[in-house]
Amino acid sequence: MSVRPRIRPDVLLAVMAGGAIGAGLRALLLLPVAGGGRTEVVAVTLIENVVGSLMLGIVVAILGDRRPRLRAFAGTGVLGGFTTYSTFAVQTAQLTVPPAVDAAATAVLLAVASLLLGLLAALGGLAIGRRITGARPGSDAPREAE
């Protein structure tokens, strides 16, 4: 029988504080374009998610299992709050319903671009972080929530 990990209050507080910062940073980038066209909002969300994936890869590779509070703060908190799967999903879905149903091809392109660019950015971030620390691939496997 596996033992369920215990939630450490200090790590939870670090995630919460980081999440507030990350969500605030995301809002600072999205609010200026929120009144504009849908294209600008979607583009900013895509950029945030790709940059966040890159940065999370770097954080995970550099910190590994060391400094769990810092990794929780920066990874799960700041970068988790900065990136947003739910916004990406809703924006993609909105492109497929009336009156934007003619934008279905754009929705598919957005979905593919977000997933592919996010994955490539995460791989790049892991490579950058490993190069910075001199770590080997696989040595940064997460043992705490990202």
Any overview of this molecule?
With 146 residues, the chain is mostly helical. The protein has one domain (9-133). 73% of the residues lie in helices and 0% in strands. The protein has five helices and no strands. It has helices spanning 9-34, 38-63, 68-82, 85-94, 104-133. Helix 1 packs antiparallel against helix 2 and helix 2 packs parallel to helix 5 (104-133). It is globular. The two termini are 24 Å apart.
Lay out the secondary structure:
Layout: H1 9-34, H2 38-63, H3 68-82, H4 85-94, H5 104-133
Helix pairs in contact: 1-2, 1-3, 2-3, 2-4, 2-5, 4-5
Briefly characterize the structure:
With 146 residues, this protein is mostly helical. The protein is built from five helices and no strands. The chain has one domain.
Measure the end-to-end span: 24 Å
Radius of gyration: 17 Å
Major beta-sheet overview:
none
Helix content: over 70%
SSE order: HHHHH
Strand composition percent: under 5%
Determine the structural class based on helices, strands and strand pairing. mainly alpha
Estimate the mean pLDDT confidence. 86
Count every beta strand, where a strand is a DSSP E run of 2 or more residues.
0
Give the uncertain stretches in residue-range form: none
- What's the tally of helices? 5
Which overall shape is indicated by the principal axes computed on the Cα atoms? globular
The total domain count is 1
